[in-house]
Design brief:
alpha/beta, five-stranded parallel beta sheet, three-stranded parallel beta sheet, 9 helices, 12 strands, globular
């Protein structure tokens, strides 16, 4: 179980809804992933347009919780406007907050992000900020009112996995009680399993599933990976060693004199 604001979820896999081959494949992938939360970009799916209404009907039929996001926003004002529209369209105070600062890597503008988070939290939004693994930025976001953090694993859509293991491990250790969701950059299920093994609470995946040769099969694979990673974390993995340690000790074994 993972607690995100007032919601208790069984699944530790959140799924993005962009770039799927068809609405039918998207619906099948969400079901295969056993996801309870999907992200939706208001910029892509306008609630007032016919296509947007059809998409919204599809999401409602899946029976999942919607996490609207401010994807593509490059300023505080733009992010705030999008968040307000999302609250009206989707009827939720949840918002995945993105304020992009660099176009090539889509790295967050952490200064704009913390300012937008402060303003939205003051208005009663439950903010899920897309951020980096920087400890100081994390402190500022929590002080602004965020109760969940979404650090990137790697640039959005890159499929590179967990680029900065040291930074992510430090983030997890520094905020042991804060729900942390790896967002962006995961490419294969083993990346998701690794994130859960490190103690992260959940992962958000979009491109790795939507652009796979078989999105439905890949969604199912990610579902298994997060379960395996979470179970391994609870089981208590052994510490890495520099030298070999035989699984069968020499003491007590038979030998010829």
């Amino acid at each position: 179980m993972v607690q995100l604001y007032q919601a208790t979820l069984r699944s530790r896999l959140l799924l993005g809804t962009a770039r799927y081959p068809s609405p039918a494949v998207l619906a099948a992938a969400v079901q295969a992933a056993r996801a309870e939360v999907v992200t939706v970009s208001l910029r892509r799916e306008s609630g007032g347009e016919r296509s947007g209404q059809a998409f919204w009907s599809l999401v409602r039929a899946l029976g999942v919780r919607v996490l609207p996001n401010t994807a593509g926003c490059h300023s505080v004002k733009e992010a705030l406007t999008t968040a307000h529209m999302a609250r009206e369209v989707f009827g939720t105070t949840w918002i995945k907050l993105e304020v992009i600062g660099e176009d090539d890597t889509l790295q967050p503008d952490v200064f704009g992000l913390t300012e937008a988070a402060r303003l939205l939290c003051a208005e009663g939004f439950e903010v899920f900020p897309y951020t980096t693994e920087d400890l100081v930025v994390a402190e500022r976001l929590l002080a602004a009112g965020c109760r969940v953090l979404m650090p990137w694993g790697a640039p959005i859509g890159s499929g590179r996995g967990l680029n900065n293991l040291f930074g992510l491990t430090a983030l997890r250790a520094h905020f042991p009680e804060v729900p942390l969701i790896i967002d962006a950059g995961l490419g294969v299920p083993s990346h998701a399993a690794r994130a859960l093994e490190l103690g992260f609470d959940a992962v958000l995946v979009n491109t790795a599933v939507a652009q796979a040769r078989d999105p439905v099969q890949m969604a199912a694979a990610f579902a298994l990976a997060v379960e395996a990673g979470a179970a391994a974390r609870l089981a208590g993995p052994i510490e890495p060693r520099d030298m070999a340690a035989p699984s069968t000790p020499l003491i007590g074994t038979a030998f010829r004199g």
